[in-house]
Amino acid sequence: SAMRVSPVAWFEKHDHRVMEIAKRSAEVTHNHPEGIKGAQATAMVILWARQGVPRNRIRRDLEAQFGYDTSTTVDELRETYEYNETCQRTVPEAFRCFYEATDFEDAIRNAISIGGDSDTLAAIAGSMAEAKWGVPEEIEREALGRLDSKLCNAYKTFAQEYVKPSHATR
Questions:
Q1: Separation between Cα atoms, residue 62 and residue 123, nearest integer Å
Q2: Is-above-0.90 flag for pTM?
Q3: What are phi and psi of 69, to 5 degrees?
Q4: CA distances from 87 to 21, 61, 103 (A)
Q5: For the chain, what are the domain ranges?
Q6: pLDDT per residue over 3-34, tens digit each?
Q7: Which residues of 88-108 are buried (b: 16+ CB within 10 A; e: fewer)?
Q8: ∠128-132-136 over CA atoms, to 5°?
Q9: 3-class secondary structure for the chain?
Q10: pLDDT (tens digit, 9 = 90+) per residue, 59-108?
Q11: Max Cα-Cα span within the chain
């Protein structure tokens, strides 16, 4: 639920609406409190990052509002993390990968480096990082070159409508 919720935080700008739509998004396939919480937490981090909220405040609010422990560092996660696809063991870890990153690519590299369910971790950390730093043009070009035209057009339409204007107003 958390790895696919990112669009919600781009087309909504109010906390209560992001929470509501993230819940509805998660319920379709993850009708469990932890799956819903993971989607909501991820969407809120993306929203807060889009709004320019400092990462230390995002971390504080994430822990207070959702009860996640994000204190384990990326270096510690590299030593101890094991495959786990639950939101309880992916959202805090993905957040930490974003929290310690210096840019979009660094967040992705952090997520991949801890192993486990690395595609999920990277999807979540990357969506958080995109909200803060954007996706570098070179990476975006490379990724789009691997998509079929239908997916590429869907991405471009969404990005032009929601993502690019947000980054332009910073």
A1: 18
A2: yes
A3: -95, 115
A4: 17, 17, 24
A5: 2-134, 137-170
A6: 999 999 999 999 999 999 999 999 998 888 99
A7: ebbbbbbbbbbbbbeebbbbb
A8: 95
A9: CHHHCHHHHHHCCCHHHHHHHHHHHHHCCCCCHHHHHHHHHHHHHHHHHHCCCCHHHHHHHHHHHHCCCCCCCHHHHHHHCCCCCCHHHCHHHHHHHHHCCCCHHHHHHHHHHCCCCHHHHHHHHHHHHHHHHCCCHHHHHHHHCCCCHHHHHHHHHHHHHHHHHHHHCC
A10: 999 999 999 999 999 999 999 999 887 888 899 999 999 999 999 999 99
A11: 42
Rounded Cα gap, residues 121 and 89, in angstroms? 10
> Which residue carries 């789009």 as its tokens?
144
CA angle 25, 97, 28 (to 5 degrees): 10
Of 14, 52, 22, nearest to 40 (Cα)?
Answer: 22
Is residue 101 within 8 Å of 125, Cβ to Cβ? Answer: yes
- Could you tell me the fold of the domain covering 2-134? ADP-ribosylglycohydrolase fold (1.10.4080)
